[in-house]
Amino acid sequence: MKLRALFTATLLCIIFHSAFAQHDTKKLDTWLDDEAGEMGGRAILMVYKNGQVVYNHSVNKMNMRQKMVNKFIARRQGKTADLDDYTPTSREAIASCSKWLSAALVMTFVDEGKLKLTDTVGKFLPVLSANGKGNITIGQCLSHLTGIKPLSLKDDLEELKNIGNMDEAMQNIAKLTMEGQPGKVFHYSNVGLQIAGAVSEKIGGKTFQALFAERIAKPLDMKNTDWGTGKVALPAGGSVSTPQDYLNFLVMILNKGQFNGKRVLSESSITQMQVNRITADIKVAYSPGEAGSTGYGYGEWVSKTADTTALPISSPGLFGSFPWVDYKNGYAAILMTFYVNNKGRNERYRALKGLVDEAVK
Questions:
Q1: Rounded distance, CA 132 to CA 149, Å?
Q2: What Å distances lie between residue 250 and 19, 204, 336, CA to CA?
Q3: 101: nearest Cα among 191, 197, 181, 10
Q4: I need a labelling partner for 229 at 20 to 30 A (CA). Which of 26, 29, 250, 329 fits?
Q5: Which residues share a beta bridge with 42?
């Protein structure tokens, strides 16, 4: 039996390296080595194509200052600093990469007929109706078109620390002012996804965290992905995940809702998520610099044209992680990092994607 296990492991290793060798990855290796210092000192890139991981490379060039920053953050969180190399199973806060995951969770209820994208939130959350926000639709929540003017990110996160459940989160959102008509103003923030998360809890009868574990994490084998230890989940930015876990999610998106032969989302839901909602009549109140001139669907940045292959579909996070799906070239990839300074980040993403496109052809 030991000989058989050794033979199997050797065979798998040969198959993996054979597939890996089909692609010229030297430029990707060099790019990661050169850029890691500007991306918090550590980075890992994983690329999937044709049923397998074709690239997996990690770099650790953390300097003394970066190590001190990691130790400081860890102390504030009551944890021990992780200064090791990133691996496919390394857990990291992924910030707005979470939005894609949350939108997918909401779409599972759409697939089951328990929710419509045109349903208004007041149907599930009377507190929003009582404060003039009940006519906002689920679709508008998923695409940052609620018309609600959010708090600053710092104030929003601070407020979230002091609440005990999703109902309290909705009471706070109900008090916010409107900056425009729902469906007419795009403002990238936490508000819409938080409302959608609260609606999910009302329909599913469980916490957002439990619903995600049951409906997304389990079928996608995302064993190390959760929403932290807080009392209330932050659907727009509170997830902690791993490169391998998130890549599993991207593979499902690439395969139009299927993963390992099982359907997680309908193809119709995948299509709806990828339709640009920032049309010509929409006022853009705020959009992050990394977005460039892209459109926005449900939880993800998309092409502004009807051709979903024109641009990759992505959902970058504040801390630099960059997951994307490229239908045109038939692959999915994730860059995991942890740094806040976004200077030059958009150009960095474009350069990386160009190198990956070249490598996987």
A1: 13
A2: 20, 24, 14
A3: 197
A4: 250
A5: 60
Q: Which residues contact 219 (CB under 8 A, 6 or more apart)?
A: 259, 262, 264
Locate 55 and state its tokens: 């690239």
Alpha-carbon torsion 259, 265, 266, 267, what sign? Answer: negative
| Angle, in degrees to the nearest 10, between helices 345-360 and 26-35 | 160
Predicted local confidence at residue 15, as pLDDT: 42
Of 190, 188, 214, 187, which Cα lies nearest the Cα of 201? Answer: 214
Phi–psi pair at 55, nearest 5 degrees: -150, 135
- Domains and their CATH numbers in the chain: 25-360 (3.40.710.10)
The pLDDT tens digits for 64-121 are: 988 888 888 878 777 777 888 999 999 999 999 999 999 999 999 999 999 999 999 9
Angle among Cα 39, 79, 154 to the nearest 5 degrees reads 60
Neighbours of 134 (CB within 10 A): 17
Burial of 135 (0-12, 13-18, 19+ CB in 10 A): middle
pLDDT at 339: 93
Distances (CA, A) of 171 to 43, 178, 200, 323: 39, 15, 16, 33
Full-model pTM: 0.91
Are residues 336 and 90 in contact, defined by beta-carbon separation less than 8 angstroms? yes
